[in-house]
Amino acid sequence: MISLTSPVETWAHRVPAGVKLAALSLATAGLFALQSPVTLALALAGVAGLVLTGGLTFARAATRALKILLPFLLLIAVWHGVTDQIEAGMAVALRLLSALALANFVTMTTRLSDMVAVAALLLSPFRRLGLSTRALELSVALVVRFTPSIARKGGLLAEAWRARSARRTGWQIVMPLAATALDDAEHVAEALRARGGLETTQPTD
Question: Which residue from 24, 107, 139, 202 has the least number of CB within 10 angstroms?
């Protein structure tokens, strides 16, 4: 899940979060069942059509969010080219792009609080057993919230590097990005401690 917000409201915003997440799970499983690059390309075209139903502004925002995949797709292409497995590489790249585009569509059209509510519902059997699920619910929220934030900061670091050097961006931004992520994590930890940490009363079912 890459992006977090949509610049416009679409029909998908009105679909319940549970329905979208269930459909995402089924669609992702279906993508892994496909092996042919041709069928995976058709699946990607279907995903693109789904994104376009939100309008051009929405589609442009979704496309920008997926730009962070380009280095990974390039790495996959190079590796499979070197190992003479071009067809397999195409299948992996198309599957990855389709799955993440779908996940991005869901996160862009679903409020974070709704996602956490779905996670809480799915974990309710564990609460009946007396187990605390607060940490896991919070983890879901933090992953969804901070993945796009870290990606955005990585983009800013890359732009800063290009402004100061003629060389291409590479490993040089890894350490600054890691330091930024750790700094964000420390701020979140401090905020949690200030609010009593995870020692909150679990709702009874």
Answer: 139
